[in-house]
Amino acid sequence: xTIADLVYERVKTMPEPLAREVLDFVxxxxxxxxxxxxxxxxxxxxxxxxAIWDNEEDQVWDDL
Length: 64
Description:
Structural class: mainly alpha
Order of helices and strands: HH
Strand content: under 5%
Number of domains: 1
Number of strands: 0
Low-confidence stretches: none
Largest sheet: none
Shape: rod-shaped
């Protein structure tokens, strides 16, 4: 039996309000993972683009 099957078996016996809480929590876990991935991508982009953004030719834009 898979983890999803085990979760399903437990949740289907719960009262509706508790089952909704489980569903909300599963959604939260998915969003938390998405946020971490977006943060990692943003950090990688910042590292890569720092040399382009931080140069003397564009220094005039730093004070805006």
